[in-house]
Specification:
Length: about 290
């Protein structure tokens, strides 16, 4: 039994078989942890067919155990180092890992502080600097974040090396829904502007100055709505909005101060808008115009 079940290779194999079966509580115990990490491997991509392919002694007296298995559609290997632990009934050998079979996911999240790893939502503000999460090895881990307002492409990490660290960069982009909501807010603002029957609509990006006498009220009309773009602001906490290419028309009757003739004056003006969309990190986006 000391050459099989209670061998160093047997200890590693029992850990890998627990990982294979998805019994992460048992795997954590075999790994020397009091409980399983909060982020567990992708359930549909667990390792399979674990085998011990080599065992060798180190000068320290510890044993190096080389394991092979299938993971994520490919054959992979992991090297574990184990050391003797207390015997069972003074006869059966037991072993423990010298380094807990964990690796680290290190995150850079640009445009939010939230992320999801294998379906577990995490808050980078509570994960240290830089944000890190320890996970069991071997395993597949998928990192992403998506809300109705922002989304990041999924990053897939296949972790096979003990004590390794993998850097994951999630860059959030505005969704179509956020752009649509922003466009609607811009258009509503412009509608309020053209409803103002004055030469210089208050707090609006256009207006007209006329030297002659104005007869009646000027009428404004949006000819072309501006094109709206969103980009991450320098503070990485908001989205810079730029609306360009807008065209507005004013129609107003004027009387010449020189000879009293009355004419209809029609003019068009180009205009742009800028501002910031805040609140996507709390799922309550609001547009603030400059």
């Amino acid at each position: 039994l000391n050459l099989t079940l209670f061998s160093a290779g047997g200890h590693v194999l029992s850990y890998l078989r627990a990982m294979e079966s998805g019994d992460y509580g048992l795997a954590a115990t075999k790994a020397g942890l009091s409980r399983a990490p909060r982020v567990l491997p992708v359930d549909t991509q667990k390792l399979s067919d674990p085998q011990i392919i080599a065992t060798s002694s180190l000068a320290s007296g510890n044993l190096l155990v080389q394991a092979q298995y299938e993971l994520d559609g490919a054959q992979s290997e992991t090297v574990f180092v184990v050391e003797p632990s207390e015997s069972v009934l003074w006869f059966f050998d037991t072993w423990r890992f010298t380094s807990t079979p964990l690796s680290s996911l290190q995150f850079a999240i640009i445009g939010d502080y939230r992320l999801s790893v294998n379906g577990v939502e995490l808050d980078a503000r509570a994960m240290g600097v830089p944000p890190r999460e320890s996970v069991l090895v071997p395993g597949v881990y998928e990192s992403s974040w998506a809300t109705p307002w922002v989304e990041a492409a999924k990053q897939r990490s296949v972790m096979t090396e003990v004590d390794s660290s993998t850097s994951i960069r999630l860059r959030l982009e505005p969704t179509v829904e956020l752009v649509d909501v922003t466009v609607s807010a811009v258009e509503d603002f412009l509608h309020d502007c053209v409803d103002q029957a004055i030469l210089q609509p208050v707090s609006c990006p256009f207006g007209v100055t006329i030297d002659d006498r104005v007869i009646g009220e000027p009428a404004w009309k949006i000819v072309d709505y501006p094109s709206v773009t969103l980009s991450l602001s320098t503070d990485r906490a908001a989205w810079s909005m730029f609306a360009s290419g807008g065209v507005v028309e004013v129609n107003v009757q004027v009387q010449s101060l020189f000879d009293g003739t009355i004419t209809t004056k029609v003019e068009t003006f180009d205009f742009n808008l800028s501002g910031k969309v805040r609140g996507t990190t709390i799922d309550e986006p609001v547009l603030n115009l400059d």
